[in-house]
Amino acid sequence: FKRTNIKKMKRNISIRISLALAVASFMLTSCNNSSPKMDEKPVQDSPAATTGMRIAYVEVDSLMSQYKFCKEYTAVLQKKSNNARNTITQKGKQLQAAAANFQQKLQNNGFASREQAASVQAAIQRQDQDLQELQSRLGAELDAETAKYNNALRDSLQNFLKDYNKTKKYDLIISKAGDNILLADKRHDITNDVINGLNKRYKSTLNDKSKKK
């Protein structure tokens, strides 16, 4: 049994979890601790908006760091990620210790027979297989949770924007994440409107779920 198998498994689960959390963040590229003022005045229409196409944009970074839903469920996913990583690490250490003990006994002729040595080795191999299956299962569960939260985030944002745009009448509302928009006039920034509206709508269910457990 090779110790590199444990390192590889631990590295794989870490990569899988990191990728899943990257998806869960829904284009999250940075966080800040600022919070929007709930009584902030709505963004004023641009004078140029009276003619031609009406365009607005939303800062994704601010949305992810200030929308209550995103903050709560990013924390949920991070906790699940940490639990999965800790479980894999603990199981991996146990497997590594068993493999090391087997190698030591084998070198010191500590087994009564070849059959006994083969039986212990087979048990370690089964433990290795169980760990790989656990890794896959935990990764799949985290992927499923990530997909569920992503869908909920998209639904809440799209439903809000549909209502919001009934009066604003924008032709196009786009997301601004990082440098995907090189230059944008702040008059077209509706981020605070969207964050404030989403937070006013959002009713957290996390406390209810924790009470049921």
- Shape descriptor: rod-shaped
**Rg result:** 26 Å
Mean pLDDT: 81
Largest sheet: 2 strands, parallel
Range of strand content: under 5%
- Helix percentage range: 55-70%
The rounded distance between the terminal residues' Cα atoms is: 40 Å
What would you call the structural class? mainly alpha
Tally the helices: 6
Q: Give the neighbour order of strands across the main sheet.
A: 1-2
Helix-strand sequence: HEHHHEHH
Strand runs, count: 2
Low-confidence stretches: 13-42
Indicate the topology.
Layout (H helix, E strand, L loop, with lengths): L3 H21 L30 E5 H7 L1 H40 L6 H55 L3 E5 L14 H11 L4 H7 L1
Parallel strand pairs: 1-2
Describe this structure in words.
It is a single chain. The chain is mostly helical. Helix content is 66%, strand content 5%. The protein is built from six helices and two strands. It has helices at residues 4-24, 60-66, 68-107, 114-168, 191-201, 206-212, and strands at 55-59, 172-176. It has a two-stranded parallel sheet with strand order 1-2. The radius of gyration is 26 Å and the shape is rod-shaped. Residues 13-42 have low confidence and may be disordered.
Can you tag this structure with a few keywords?
213 residues, mainly alpha, two-stranded parallel sheet, 6 helices, 5% strand, rod-shaped
Short description:
With 213 residues, this protein is mainly α. It has helices at residues 4-24, 60-66, 68-107, 114-168, 191-201, 206-212, and strands at 55-59, 172-176.
